Each structure stands twice: as C-alpha cells, then as structure tokens.
Amino acid sequence: MSRATGQVRKKTTLISMIRDEKGILETFCAHALSLFDRIILIDHLSSDGTREYIKLLSEKHPNIEYYFFEEPGYYQAELMTWAAKNLVNNKAPGWVFILDADEFLPFKSKEEFDRKLSQLGSLPVIFMPWLNLVPLDMESGRVINQFFLKPPKPSRHRKIAFQPSLIPSSDYFVVQGNHALFIGNNSSKVKFPAKKSFSIYHLPIRTKRQLQKKILNGVKSYRHMDRDRNGKIGSHWDEIHQIMEDTSLTNEMMAGIAAQYSDTLHPPYERSLDELRKEGYSELRMEICFSRPMISFDSIARGRKDGAIGENDDSSSQSANHQKIDFNRSTRSVQIAKERDPN
C-alpha cells in the first residue's frame, strides 16, 4: 500500500512477442525485471538464440514465463489479445503493458514507475507516444547509459497499457502493433478512449545487421498472412525493405529511417546527425531502471562449450510455463497446445 495515497499497489504484467532480438534482449529483460511483477515472453520463430535465452531465463526468474508461437504469419493482434485475456486475471486489479523488445519506459526506478501508475490509477487505458531515438553509436548496439538523439516531439504513433478490470466489456481486442484497444469485433467495433500518460523510448534501428534482419523477418511474416493481411498494416517494413534493396545502407540512411519510422518515408532518406540537431533533436543519455538478469547470452555459449547446456539438460521440466501456443487460421483462434517445447 502506498503511504502517500493510501492506495493498494496494483500488480503489473508485461506481455511481449519477440523474434530474433539477441542484440537487445538482455537489456530489455533487465529493464523489465526491474519494473514488472510478472513478465510473459512469447518467442516467434527465433533462430538467433533468443528462444533458448528466454527459456533459460524463465527457469532462473520465477516471475518470467516463456511461451513459443510457430505460426509463420504475423498474427500479433490475435496473439496479444488472447494472452491478455487468458494468461492474465482480468477481474483482479492490475496493469497490462504490451511492449516490444526495442521499447523502454522512461523511469530510473520502480518506485518512480509505481508513483506514475498510482496517478493514472482511475484510467482504464493509457497511451504512450513513441520517442523514436537515433543512436549516435550505430555499431555496438548498446543501450544502457549510451547517447541517442531525441526528437523535439513524440511520434504520432503510440503504444497502450490497460487495466482489464476497469474495462466494462470482456469483448475487447488489441489491434495490430498494440497501438489501440477496441470493444467489439472486427465487423462491429468501437475504439476505447485512451488518455495520454508518458512517452516511451523506441529504438527500432540500432545497427545495420539488426535493421536488415528486423525488416526481412517482418516482410516475410506479413507475406505469410496472404489475404489475412489488412490494408496497409506493416507497409513501413515494405518501404524500408525496398529502400535497402535499391540503395546502400549507410549511417545517414539509418538515421533518416529512424527519424521517420512507421510514417510514410519521403526522400531524401539520408539524414546526418548534424541535420537532425538543426531540426531540434537533442542528446539523451539512456538512464533507465534495470536489474541484471541471472544469465546472459555469453553464459549460454559457455554452458554449451562446457557441456552444462546440451541435449541432456532436463531443466525445462522445472517449469510448467514452457508451452507452445497454437493458431487456427480458419477460425482466427489461439490456444495452448498440448505439446511441450522439445528443446
């Protein structure tokens, strides 16, 4: 209970769908562990060690749960809505945040985060505008205590967090991209009003290799959806993919794409850091709350080398939350599969 307000502290849950985020995942999980009571991580066809990392992390941290989703299409809206409704107690007071691995909350401590949520406690849904950050270092991919260029104003794009117990209808869904919450269904829906809260740091572009993999994975996943893909959803990935196909990926190109991320891209695509500064961008040092996880990708690599992690490792049996999530395209339904993770 908060001494200042007399309010009972509400439990916080993070849900995240993750694919091939080795370069930033340790930092994201360190940030999440420092802020959230419960963390639900759903791997989507990772091939860079992300899945193994999440699985082992969930065995070390009891508040982290690991699931995996092997549908090749990018059915994010269906998966996140299902997770919020079925993995979270919607009747109990509490917050649900749906974040990607490149999104960070602007708090230096859990106490600061809790105070802000206490101020927002009467709101069913809040929105958090993106601050699309441009890295000054486009080689290392490091985040904590690194310097970025911050735009003079937030993006028009945003993410949401909500309190299920305060939403008057259980018939809600989260839209693709986790940008809004609607009541009803796709044929008859009403957007639930969300109140502005605080901006979040968004790092969609960090290194050349990371950007290339991110865009290629996104384009492939949307193409796998075939006719299920609605309108221009994910079109910014197609645009970036085409630009990368037609031109060389320079630091100036990456800065320009980061500055216009998720909007329609307009040439000239390349922007120097000095040009962005003249447009009002300012330096920001990434000073955010984090608690170092009990394992790292390096420790996984050492474990393999030493034989500590291998085919005979049966540690997955320690947790009941290593589960596969199935998706039925014909009914657009999601459910836990009976099959367990074979790894």
How does the major sheet shape up? 11 strands, mixed
Radius of gyration, Cα only, in angstroms? 20 Å
Calculate the mean pLDDT score and round it. 92
Order of helices and strands: EHEHEHEEHEEEEEEEEEHHHHEHEE
What's the number of extended β-strand segments?
A: 17
**Helical content (DSSP H or I, runs of 4+):** 25-40%
Shape: globular
Topology:
Layout: E1 11-18, H1 22-35, E2 38-44, H2 50-60, E3 64-69, H3 76-86, E4 94-98, E5 103-104, H4 110-119, E6 125-132, E7 134-135, E8 147-150, E9 158-162, E10 172-174, E11 181-184, E12 189-191, E13 195-196, E14 200-202, H5 208-223, H6 235-246, H7 251-259, H8 273-278, E15 282-285, H9 297-306, E16 322-328, E17 333-340
Parallel strand pairs: 1-2, 1-4, 2-3, 3-16, 6-13, 6-14
Antiparallel strand pairs: 4-9, 5-14, 6-9, 7-8, 8-15, 10-11, 11-12, 16-17
Provide a short characterization of the protein structure.
This protein has about 350 residues and is an alpha/beta fold. The chain has helices spanning about 20-35, 50-60, 75-85, 110-120, 210-225, 235-245, 250-260, 275-280, 295-305; strands at about 10-20, 40-45, 65-70, 95-100, 105, 125-130, 135, 145-150, 160, 170-175, 180-185, 190, 195, 200, 280-285, 320-330, 335-340.
